[in-house]
Amino acid sequence: MPSVTAAYSARAAEYTELLGSMGAVHPSDRQLIDSWAAAVDGRVLDAGCGPGHWTGHLAGRGLDARGIDLVPSFVEHARAAYPGVRFDLESIEDIAEPDGALGGVL
Predict the structure, then answer these.
(1) In angstroms, rounded to a whole number, what is the distance separating the alpha carbons of residues 81 and 104?
(2) How many domains does the chain have?
(3) Taking Cα atoms as reference points, which of 94, 54, 47 lies closest to residue 71?
(4) 67 and 49 in contact (C-beta within 8 Å)?
(5) Residues 61/41, Cβ–Cβ less than 8 Å
(6) Are 74 and 7 in contact (CB under 8 A)?
(7) pTM
(8) What backbone phi and psi angles, to 5 degrees, belong to 87?
(9) Which range of residues forms the domain containing residue 32?
(10) What is the pLDDT of residue 60?
(11) What is the CATH number of the domain that holds 39?
């Protein structure tokens, strides 16, 4: 995924500014994810979390949520914006979770 990571890295600041908050989320998307989250039992992984707004939102709903992304500036932003939530620089191809350990993946 080096080309995808490079492409997102090159535009991470722009992406974060334009789309990296819950205020930028369409209400129907938020409703869909909130409905899904209400049915989740267990820890949640936000795979490809970007600037972390969805992970932060899920954690704010009381879920044990962790975000992963391959773009260092996304992970740095997410850690700063949501200090009580775990964010890791990690690939979705090599998720460091045992089988059956997660209640859901976003």
Answers:
(1) 23
(2) 1
(3) 47
(4) yes
(5) no
(6) no
(7) 0.92
(8) -130, 135
(9) 2-105
(10) 97
(11) 3.40.50.150
